[in-house]
Structures are given as C-alpha cells and as structure tokens.
Amino acid sequence: MATLPTVVINTRQVWDNRENSKLSEVVYKQRKMSAFSDCYLELSDDPVRFEPINQLTNVFFDDSNKDVFTVRSGGVMGVVVKGPKENGKVLNFRMEDQGTVLSIKLSLDHKVLAVQRNNTSIEFMNVNKEHLVVEYSISCKRNASILGFVWSDINEFAVITDHGVELYTVIPDKKALKQLKSTSITVQWFVWCPRNNIAILASSHGSQLQPVAIKQGSISKLPKVETEPRRMALKGDVTLSTLYGTAAVLILRHQSGPHTAEVHVHLLNVSGQSPVKAHVLKLGLSGRFAINVVDDLILVHHQASSSSQIFDIALAEESDGSVRYHTTVAPMKSLKPTSITLPGLVEPQSHACELYSPNWVVFQPNIVIDAKLGCLWHIKLRLSELCQQIKDMSVCTQLALNRTDGKPVLLTLLSDAIKADKPDMNKLQESFNHINLVYRDWVDREVQNQSACPASASKNQSSPRVLIDQNAMFEEIFQTMSADADLLKIERVLVCYLTSLAEYGVPVQFNLNKLLVSTLARQNKFNALQQLLQYGVITDSKPLAVLLLSLGNMHSSSTQMALDMLARLKANDEIQEVLLSEHQILSALKLAKDEANPRKFLTAAKSSGDPTLFHSVLYYFRNHPKFASVLQSDERLHTFINDYNEMFSGSCA
C-alpha cells in the first residue's frame, strides 16, 4: 500500500508496512453481510477541514496541541494552523524559505514556534499574533542526529536524538534556551504520549523499549517494558496511550505461519516494577492494522476487511494467572459511512469519504486524518448500537458502567430486558450485582469522606463514570413498571434487585420496600412477605412498619410482622401505640414498665369496657412505687379513681 512521504511527521502511518495477506473468504463474507445501520463506530459529523496535500503543500500534525499545520512551499506561501473545532483557533503566518520543513510544532501556549529542517538543529520563533519575530536555535550534540522533538510543558522542550534525550527551558523574552537535563541512551525511534508526558525510546530494532517520563524539568527513566526476548517491533507497531487512567504500551504482534495477529498490552502502573504484558487482544485476523482508543475501549482497525474490532480490558476474560486474553466484545463492523461537501462547478457536491483509506493516518486517542482529502475526524462510540450487538446482558452492563455516557444507555437496556415476555432473571441478577458493586463502593467512599477532614475528603472524591443508585432504579425502571398489570414480574424483578442490594450490604430505601410490600399484598402473598422480612431482603424501618399495620385488615399476620419489625428496631414507644390500638393493654403496659403514662393506659383500659382490665391497670399503678404518689397528686387521674370506686364500691385512697 502506497505511503505518502510528506503527510505527517513524527507519527506513524495508520497501516503498518507489512505485506497484506489476501482477504480470507470468511472475512470477505463478513464484509459483504455487514450492515451500516448497526455500526457502533462513526466519524465526527463536522471534521476539521484543511488544504489537502499536493506538490506545493505539506501537512503536519502536532499530537500535543492537536493542531494541523498546512505548510505551502516551505512556509513562504503561508502556514495555516487549525486546532480542534471546540476552540476554533486558526493561525496564519509566513516563514522564510530556509529549506524543507521536517517537523513543525507550537508551544502549548502557542507563543513559540519550533521548526526542524535538518537532523542537527531546531529553529525557534516567537509568535506575536500572526507574525513571527526573532529567530534562535539549538543544535544537538556532536555526532548526534535529531529524531524528533516534543513540548513537554509550556516553556519546556525535549529533543530526542539517537544518543538520548535533552530537556531545555525556553526563555522567549531573552531569545534563548537553557538546558535542564539530559540522559544518554541509544535510540532508533520513539513514541510520545502528551497526556502522560511519557516517551517510549526504542533500541535494538525495537526489542528494547525504554519508557521515560519528562515532567517538571526532569527526565526519569522508568522500568523497561518486558517484551519477548529478541522480538523486534517497528515504530508503526507500538502505540502509547492511556487506559482507565493508566499509561499503556500496546504492541501489535504479527504471528508467523497461519497464526493471526495479537495486540499485547503492557501497563505502566506499578512503581519500581517492569511493565509486563498484562493483556493480549486476539484479533483473529492477519494483515494491516491501526489502533485507536475511545473512552478506554481499544479499537483495532483492519484495512483488508474495512472493519474494526473493539476490546475492553476491564472485562473479566480468560486468564492464565498473569495475562488476560480478550476477544472482541462485539462482531467486527465498519465505521458508519460519512460524507463531506466539496466545491462543484455550479453548486457544492456531497462526496462520500472512503473508509479505511490507504491515505489515513491515526493519532491517539481517537483521531483520523486523511491528508489527501484534507479532513481530520474524531472517532466516536455509538454505545447504544454497540450494546445491541452484544447478546450477553452482563457484558453489556459492565461495558456501559465504564463509559462516559453509559447511564441512559444502561437504564434503557435494563428497561428493555425487563419488558421482555420472559426476562432472564439470572442475567438480570448479574447486571444488578455489577451495578450495585459500583454503588456500594461509592456509598463507602461517601461515608469515609463525611468522617474525614475536608482535605482528605477532597482527595477521595472520585465519582464513578456511571452511578445508578436506588432513586434512579425506582424512577426510571420500577415506576414505569408499576402501571404494568403483570404483578408477578414486578415482584420478581424487585426481589432480584433488593437481593442484590442486600448481598452488597446496601440498606434498601423505603420507596422500594414499600413498592415490594404493596405488590406482594395485592397478590395476597403474605407468607412470601414474611420470608423476605426474615431473610433481611426487605429492610426494617418505622415507616414500613406503619405500612404493614395498615395492611392488617387484609391479613392478620401483617400486624405481627409490624410488631416484630419494631422490636428489631427497638422502637418501644411505637410498639406500645400499636398494642394499645389493638387493645392489648396489658402487653403494652408490660413493655412500658417504668416509662408508662398512667393517664394514657387508664384511658385505654376504661375505653375497652372491660371492668376487670380497668381494675388490673389501676391496681398496677396504685401498687407501683413510682406511680402511687402520682395517682394522688395528679388531679387529672382522680376521675379514674372515682370511676373505679363507683365500679367496684371500693377506695384507692
């Protein structure tokens, strides 16, 4: 496949340069059967447009600022710099013709321009609006050859040569550079990750990969990447990106013979230890590939089949104890077709863009550039369409929980699964467990933050990407079900969800308990209700006890269930009120002991119309050391003594 030698400097081409194997019959059929309507990846609708590459114009890309440079005639006829669409910045200037431009980049604050025209020196120019003023330069050490350069900070600049790394601070006002640090190491090529300020320096034909961190005026060598002994890697085979907040080295490995390609993922997360291979992505294909990362999902594009695979290293997969082996989470699909508008003879014409074009160049994390067409796109994930391609509900749940916009998709997914004629309760239980594991961890952190000092709490604030709490489940799932006539389905799903909450030690909110109790009562399933209370699936609470009391006219056992619940809550005052309302006055009096209110109990005993009961209650207070004097001193109680005297012709005095 032809290579455009002047497309983008200091980055790799999208398709590696190995000979492409013939497209197998199976893959060919997959390509023919692929439907664009269910594509789960798409290019941004409004790409950054720039002047296409031609005989006079070269195109460069700066992966730190995400700027596209179009350089016409070495800069004499103008340089146009376009940044990402969201900032809308466009910079125009001219440069003197001092030779072919090999690389060009602006500082992170866009105030200094660095230009490389040969392999021994780099020129600097201060940017004043759209004018370049003052030129100063640096030259590499003797016998060294510049491989490239990066802006590691606003005024910090690193030069990577075949002899190592040199770090400078740029002082625009003084038109000078000052060397801060340097390190010596043999380098044949390098890959840079601006997000983590980490470079991979390759030697021994790519069999030795040395990570270095270039931060805050220092160069720190990290432990070497442990690769297969004497296994070489080309620059186009190595991708440096970030997965779930951790720097990762992705190495494309082409297997010999009939074996298919793999991607080996090394994580740079353990201090002091070599980043060993932690994950292997089994591609099941051979040929030419390119890699992007979108929302922590690894995208592997395959040119021959014009399709992409998608991998998630967070999913639990087959493991040999040290390495986890992953297959694509969904069937391979092509990117969604896209088009751009081009000038026409009479009016603009719509032009369908060639997907997986040999002119494509990719950059991390999710950028695709077609320099011949003059377009820069961002690859976007269509999560809803992706989940539709995955049959396993549990996998969909885990996938959505780790995506930035996963909450509405996951709620819709759950709602659709529940509305099915025969929902798979086992799979729903698994999904609820994944959701509540995240929920429980969040609850624990919130409790810790409330008990910690403000400074510590601010450090611990790390909200999950998708948090589906009980309120969300109640409002988005169960309230929409309450209008459903299928009470049995509501019951089963509620029990499934509440069981999951109980398994992770999360107290169930009253609104969910109330819905389950009401659903069971409407089906007259009081025995089942009692069992759920005994096993702790339904959480005890005073409002729930009141609800159970209100169901006493439907089933006598609900009152006893309410009393048992109040007893577990040690709510003696409430139990007394229930017993009094049930005319179990002596039981209430026995429970109250020294805290009894004589007037309340005497009133209840008299209202019962049972003289023997009234006698027993008054006799209890008359002979109790604490209440005997109260009967004499409280005028409000004299009425009860008089009633007793009339009833039994005796005296309490």
TrEMBL record:
Residues covered by the Regulator of MON1-CCZ1 complex N-terminal domain: 59-177
GO BP of this protein: regulation of autophagy
Residue ranges of domain Mic1 in the record: 403-623
SUPFAM superfamilies in UniProt: WD40 repeat-like
Descriptive protein name: Mic1 domain-containing protein
PANTHER family documented for this protein: COLON CANCER-ASSOCIATED PROTEIN MIC1 (PTHR12897), REGULATOR OF MON1-CCZ1 COMPLEX (PTHR12897:SF4)
One GO CC term on file: Mon1-Ccz1 complex
Domain of life, per lineage: Eukaryota
Organism name: Dendroctonus ponderosae
